[in-house]
Write a structure and sequence with these properties.
The protein has 105 residues and is of the alpha+beta class. The protein is built from four helices and four strands, in the order αβββααβα. The mean pLDDT is 94. Pfam families: Peptidase_M14.
């Protein structure tokens, strides 16, 4: 996702990695949000868009990512949560199905 790549380039809390590839060779991208305050923090993990037509789940993951990254440092509750936990998101866990629903009637 271009959004995640851009966010990782502009926000020090965010990094991305490819967790694997789909059957059709598409990357399965994970966004990691961490303040880096501890190496052994518990992790909150979200995988979205598992089923091809669940478009709202990918949008929800991206919205949560946005809320966390824009709220860190200004919202005490979000700042505390990011300092206590690492956050991992896979906004599109099924990239082949997602692409299929956009390209096939």
């Amino acid at each position: 996702m271009a959004y995640l790549a851009e966010l990782a380039n502009t926000n020090p809390l965010v990094s991305t990695k490819v967790g694997g590839t789909s059957e059709e060779g598409r990357d399965i991208v994970q966004a990691i949000i961490s303040s880096g305050l501890s190496a052994n923090k518990p992790v909150h993990f979200f995988d979205c868009n598992i089923h091809a037509r669940e478009w709202i789940t990918a949008a929800t993951c991206v919205w949560i990512i946005d809320q966390i990254t824009t709220g860190y440092g200004s919202d005490p509750e979000i700042t505390s949560l990011v300092d206590q936990y690492d956050w991992k998101f896979v906004p599109i866990a099924n990239p082949d199905g997602y692409a299929y629903t956009w390209n096939t009637v």
